[in-house]
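Check my protein:
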Amino acid sequence: MFDIAFSELVVIGIVALLVIGPDKLPKIARTAGHLFGRAQRYVNDVKSDINRELRFEELQSLQDEIRQNTQQPASPQYKAGQIIRHDMEQTAPKYQVGQIIRHDLEQNDHAAEEHQRPTMMADYIDPAPLKQGAAN
């Protein structure tokens, strides 16, 4: 904000030392530092509040725009479900669609059953009995 050089700060410090005196100068400098910190926090809070309000207004305008776009009817008078149903009926009759889906599910079930892995350790171990007391 302010463009103050180091030499200017030294001059201000010397004048403050002469006018205020060496006894009260540390206390006044500490108080000035606290006041300066409060002022900075206040300015930062105001800036963040302004930014928050701007973002809120942008979000509200975006929300209003989305509402307007969703309330306007689309150019075709069909809904998504009607379009999908129409496309399915065009590609295959109703009874065939169910049969195709059922057939695919059954094939997946059979394939899964064939490729099942053993889940217990006993399935990996040779069932032959172990010899007890065998000599080495």
Observations:
- The two ends are 92 Å apart (CA to CA).
- The CA atoms of residues 27 and 33 lie 10 Å apart.
